[in-house]
C-alpha cells in the first residue's frame, strides 16, 4: 500500500498525523479498527494521518482514549489550534540547524540565538502574564530555543552575522541583573572567531534597510533562504530573486551599521550602567 510521506517539521498538523499513524501501527490497528474505537470513519482517520484534515479537540480526546495515550494527542492538537510557535517558524528551524552561515537582524529584542536563559525566560513569562501563550507553550518555546542555540556550538560552527537595532539594547527585559548578564553574553558572542556583531544606531534613520526582523541562511550546498516575521506568522522564502534582494539589503545594512569594535564598546558601556 502506498503511503503519503509527511514531514513532521512542516507543520503541527503534519506532526500530529505522523504520530497518530505511528501509534496506530505500533498497536497493530488498521484505520478501520481505530475508526471504530473513535466513533468516526476510516476516511476521517486517513485524512488526519495525511494532513488533509485538521484534528479537532474532540477527535484528539477520542484517539487518546482509543490508543491509551493519556492526553498526548490532545496536547498536540492544542499546538495546532493554539500554536506556541508562529506558523512558518517550525519549517524554518531545521534549515537553521544545518546552515553554514546565519545572518540576523532584529528590532526591539535580542535575537533568540543570542539570548541568555534568564532573558529568554523573562520574555516568555511576560507573554504568559499577558495571556498570549500558556505556561506549557512558554516551556516549549524555551526548549526549542535551547536546541537552536546548541547548533551554534557544533563542529564546525556556522558563521553568524548579527546586526541589532539599537532598540534591542535599550529595551529593558527582566530588570538590571538580567540585562547585565545579557550584555555580557553579547560581548562574549562578539569575541568568537565565527561571529560578527554590529549595532544599527537610531541615527541611521531612513538608511536602515529593514523595518522588520529577518534571518538569512546559507546552507552547505550554497543555497539560500530568508525568514521574516509579521505579528501573526512567519514567512520562509526560497525564491532566489527575493532572497538575493534581501541579502543585498543586509549587506547595505552592515555597511551603514557601527563596526564591531564600536558596537561592543556601546554594549560594554550599557553593561557598566546596569551593574
Q: How would you describe what is shown here?
A:
The protein is 52% helix and 12% strand. The protein has 275 residues and is α/β, with parallel strands linked by helices. It has two domains: 12-81, lambda repressor-like DNA-binding domains (434 Repressor (Amino-terminal Domain), Orthogonal Bundle), CATH 1.10.260; 91-274, Endonuclease, Chain A. A six-stranded mixed sheet has the order 3-2-1-4-5-6, sandwiched between helices. The N and C termini lie far apart (65 Å). The mean pLDDT is 89.
List keywords for this structure.
elongated, alpha/beta, 2 domains, 6 strands, Endonuclease, Chain A, 275 residues, 52% helix, 434 Repressor (Amino-terminal Domain)
Give a brief description:
A 6-stranded mixed beta sheet has the order 3-2-1-4-5-6, sandwiched between helices.
Topology (SSEs and partners):
Elements: H1 12-26, H2 31-38, H3 42-49, H4 57-67, H5 72-81, H6 89-98, E1 101-106, H7 117-129, H8 135-150, E2 159-165, H9 166-170, H10 176-190, E3 195-200, E4 214-218, E5 224-229, E6 234-237, H11 240-256, H12 260-274
Parallel strand pairs: 1-2, 2-3
Antiparallel strand pairs: 1-4, 4-5, 5-6
